[in-house]
Specification:
The chain has about 90 residues and is mostly helical. The chain contains three helices and two strands, in the order H-H-E-E-H. The two termini are about 10 Å apart. The protein has a two-stranded antiparallel ribbon. It is about 75% helix and about 5% strand. It has one domain. It comes from Fluctibacter halophilus. Keywords: Membrane, Transmembrane, Transmembrane helix. Pfam families: DUF4212 (PF13937). This is DUF4212 domain-containing protein.
Length: about 90
């Protein structure tokens, strides 16, 4: 991976870390917030016959985690292209 300038290198890693922190925040809200803190509120809502809080704790969080992986790949490919370090 070769950057044109040192500023590009710093900006690339700043964008990378920013993306990771945003995705980790979503992960935290879904896993801890919806699965633990808001479970009583969410259990008042039915989703496919299950209480929503239970569903988030058992399955919903997993779906969100997998979606976050795909979002990370897409966004990192965009960042790589922006800084000219993509693999294509």
């Amino acid at each position: 991976m070769a950057f044109k300038t040192e500023e590009d290198k710093v900006a690339y890693w700043k964008d990378n870390i920013s993306l990771v922190l945003k995705l980790l925040a979503i992960w935290f809200v879904v896993s801890f917030g919806c699965g633990i803190l808001l479970v009583d509120v969410l259990n008042n809502i039915q989703f496919f016959g299950f209480k929503l809080g239970f569903w988030f704790a058992q399955q919903g969080a997993i779906y969100v985690f997998v979606a976050l992986i795909f979002v990370y790949v897409k966004k990192m490919n965009e960042i790589d292209k922006r800084y000219g370090v993509d693999e294509e």
